[in-house]
Amino acid sequence: MVWSYCKAKVEMKCSCGNLSETVMCMSGANDSTLNPAIQRASSAAVASKTGEGVDITEMMGRRRVLECNEKCAVIERNRRLAEALNLKDAELRPEAGAPQYTEFLKEMARKNPSSVSSIEKGLSNLVQSVQDSKFSSRSHSFPCMNRDMRRMIHELAEFYGCQTQSYDQEPNKNVVALARKDKCRLPNMTLSSVVQRERFPKVPMPIPHHRNMDISSSYTTHDAYLSLPFIPRSPCLILLFVRKGLGCCATSGLCTTP
């Protein structure tokens, strides 16, 4: 009997069930563990002449799974927190994808990274404190800030499910954030993280240089140094001399020629 790969579409999931992907089964011909069991079951069915199908569910013990990511960790943490606080899991589950922060918030994060990071920490600590507390709500008072910074707190607090209110008069006006246990949440990505990702997107891996490549006069000293992949990379002083067809690199007394 000839066996071939199973081409049926199956759904793979991660261990927590958050991620899923439809792939081709591909179980079969080269599976030395599974094939003998399937053959025996198939032979038994034929011998009994019942014409019934063969159930191989118990044989598929080695179930392939996807690897959980950071979002899975956030969901699992929120799920455990929801169980401890008797909350609905959906209330703590982050929305898919990065939060849609406004351009105003992004611009403020670019201009005032340290201040924005401090505000994010204040809101995050507020949410976590009320979720860990026996009280139904908690508040946090931010220091006095200018109008743009106060506006930023008002808009950013919405992504944490918090209510905000301004108090006092200029120039001592400040914002107080209120977090309710049944409403507050943590965004799956902070404003700072989103801005950082947009500013420094992932780039493809550089193509490595070869040792025997021709080093011409158009090369810079940095290019020539990179063409010697076996030279230890260190912050110490590097003396690099480049000539046509010959390169010499000395570092910490070590000298090599390509």
From TrEMBL:
GO biological process: negative regulation of transcription by RNA polymerase II
Native species: Holothuria leucospilota (Black long sea cucumber)
Protein name per Swiss-Prot or TrEMBL: Transcriptional repressor NF-X1
InterPro entries the record matches: NFX1_fam, R3H_dom, R3H_dom_sf
Domain R3H: 113-181
PROSITE patterns for the chain: R3H
CC per GO annotation: nucleus
GO molecular function: DNA-binding transcription factor activity, RNA polymerase II-specific; RNA polymerase II transcription regulatory region sequence-specific DNA binding
Family annotation (SUPFAM superfamilies): R3H domain
